[in-house]
Amino acid sequence: MNKRNLFRSQGFTNAVSSISAICVGLLFGLVILFVSNSSQALQGLGIILKGGFSARARGVGQSLYYATPIIMTGLSIGFASKTGLFNIGASGQFIVGAFVAIFIGVKLQLPESLAWSHWIIALLCSMIAGGLWALIPGLFKAYLNVNEVISSIMMNYIGMYGVNYFVKLYVYDSLKALSQNVAETAVIPKWGLDHIFFNMTGNYKDTATINAGFYIAIAAAIVIYIVLNKTVFGYELKACGYNRFASKFAGINEKRSIVLSMVIAGMLSGLGGGLLYLCGANGRRIKVVDVIAPEGFNGIPVALLGLSNPIGIIFAALFVAHITMGGEYLQQLNYVPEIIDIIIAIIIYFSAFSLLLRNVISKLFRDRHVELVSDTGPAGKPGRFAGASAGLNDGVEKEDK
Amino acid sequence: MSYIIEMIGITKQFPGIIANDDITLQLKKGEIHALLGENGAGKSTLMSVLFGLYRPEKGIIKKNGEEISIKDPNDANRLGIGMVHQHFKLVHNFTVLQNIILGVETTKHGFLKMDKARKRVMDLSDKYGLKVDPDALISDITVGMQQRVEILKMLYRENEILIFDEPTAVLTPQEIEELMKIMRELVKEGKSILFITHKLNEIKQVADRCTVLRKGKCVGTINVAETSKDTMSEMMVGRKVKFSVEKTDAVPGEPVFEVKNLTVASRHGTKKPVKNVSFTVRKGEIVCIAGIDGNGQSELVYALTGLMPVEDGKILLNGKDVTHLSIRERNIEGMSHIPEDRHKDGLVLDYSLAENLVLKKYFMQEFQNNGFIKFPAVFKYSDMLIDRYDIRAGQGSSAIVRSMSGGNQQKAIVAREIDYNPEILIAVQPTRGLDVGAIEYIHKKLIEQRDDGKAVLLVSLELDEVMNLSDRILVIYEGEIVADLDPKKATIQELGLYMSGSKRSEAV
Ligand SMILES: Nc1ncnc2c1ncn2[C@@H]1O[C@H](COP(=O)(O)OP(=O)(O)OP(=O)(O)O)[C@@H](O)[C@H]1O
Ligand SMILES: [Mg+2]
After folding, report:
1. How far is the CA of A206 from the centre of ligand 2 (A)?
2. A228: which of A354, B10, B208, B220 lies 20 to 30 Å off by Cα?
3. ipTM rounded to 2 decimals
């Protein structure tokens, strides 16, 4: 391929649009930094951009640890959107998966010879739990035509309250007001990552929480990429997402496809829950508070920024985790924690949002038809994210017949 | 003579194709100017340029001799240019009136003033005989009525240059007559019309001049009165086209497809759209179901192909009962279907052409290996069909179907379904929106299929096609088969009587 082709290629166009969206987001973040504390704004932006690097190798490891679950929820939402569904229920599936993983991690007693499989069993169960949680909205959508957004939101609440209840009932550490530590055998192994992501303070080795879960998330992205683009199964799911009627016409069981899409999306989110919580002493625990898991919602900007492409989603999640870590270090300056949250949220959401305006922007540059072919599909169809802009550009779509 | 609109040297490129190559089109005030060209010749593109949907790379547009710039449809509207798209741009859960005034609402202090608008709409509707019910929802009215709404929209905006992109492809013969009358009325008022159609008869009937495009280039502009249909089609395709179909007498064999006392329940109301229908299609014959649109044809086909459940009765394919089989199972038994609505049922518009061409075969050994699609095989197959059926798209097999011209989308479906080599091919309006050359080819393929000992069930609203192609005609009226005719003996008049329900043969 020559250079010209590279610049005209779809991947390149998409990467450029995502990166410019991020720049727009950062710009807005800077504005807020200035508004709240103008003297330290530039320094603040520097800290945000440095992200986990502020704390050297351990910080980076921590960023990757936070990236892991949002890779999974991003994949979940991106996968669903490719198949024509909006999985806003990632939070519920995530937290249910998390609970099941912790429950098994704490309670399951395995004979010595099988102890090695403890964390694997816990992860598999988290996947199944997430899948089952998504099965319900999937069935409702396929057989009763109930919008999956509404039923998934309800499932989010049921999931959150249910998990809070069951955590307190079964795996509660009332001293710390957190879920209990899982057994040693249920902690996902490090697979060498502890030799990279640590800081030495004197003789003390301060290791990041990151573990093989990160590898698993990357592998999941690759699997999803292959399923969507190379297999008969993916072909069917995408066809149903693009046009339910034509899929039925072609003899595809479109109801089954809808249910399966939802279940797979749920499994991805559920696995995300397992990956985040099956960790050693310095990792995350479930706090019993009435808040819907933010990892699920953060999957939305991740999927948007990654244009629902599994590989794009990995990078988008890394970015979001990086910026979030940056926010934590921002506390060194005179910024109130709430403001920091706002700043980080603004950067992330504006980045995603400006992607929606992609076609409007490209219109300004009078380069319309190139966009036309690359992302089509009416709003509400797949590529809702990848091509969300198409809706704005309705009139320019192919008019004919 | 001065021109109201001149498009000079228009060039518009898409990836892989020059859709318009230095085209010049001049529209006189008060004329009906037809635009003729093969599928994919660039007609819709040229009109979209005039309507501000595409920016051309080269060329200028003049109105009344002055150069103008049209950046978007709002500009076009301001300049008095209106367009009726082939696929209407109406809001389905809005009423007729709301659709007409959308974007040009009259308001007072931010509140809608509907009364004034309603009065103007009703006046326009009376004046041009465009009967509509202003309070009906778009989703409840027929395609013909929707088109009237689109026309009213242009009139309401006082557009004086009206573009019609293949308006007649979706209309019944009666509605076409009406539309022609309205168009004549409009030019009498001093409006100017650009009219795209593939039907030479229509051009002969209403157009004054006609510009012919071929492969993105302008072949010339002719006076319709002085030019024969043959010349026009030759200009457009570059060779002579036969309008009548050459075929030998059918030699029907065994029955392939038997329908016994089929009844279909309605989706909404209580009236059954298909009542107690029985017929047989034999090997080596083309049987046509003729009738006025809305007499149960769609439901009958939906039931036969499995898209809609059967209430009562039996469907046999090669002696096997397929009444309750799934669509996939029916296909495998040897059924294939060219659907009525190509965008809804026929195509996944956001898939590539290759992916669409294997829509019914992707799961077969030929195209998959342990669940993985063999893309090289898919592309090879797709290239073969593209070549054989002359499907034109800028980027060949990898073109996204949404970007293809309407006629080429249709060709893709026809190619896929005929190449399936079915025992029974159920073809609904297979040549809708195709150019004369393509129609000739598709008709030839259908006859080949028949001569090969396969059966074809054709559903068509076009009487010419019905008379030319079929070996037997079944007339459907209000969900019942009312006649079984031999096209060689029956006349068009007789057919018309059966179709309108004024005659009924006792034999059936
Ligand atoms: N948005 C688009 N992106 C890419 N290619 C396009 C686009 N619109 C049209 N084309 C290509 O330009 C060519 C001309 O298309 P156009 O729709 O103008 O044909 P047409 O003359 O209207 O044909 P038909 O009679 O089939 O409607 C086609 O080959 C089509 O594939
Ligand atoms: Mg066209």
Report:
1. 67
2. A354
3. 0.88
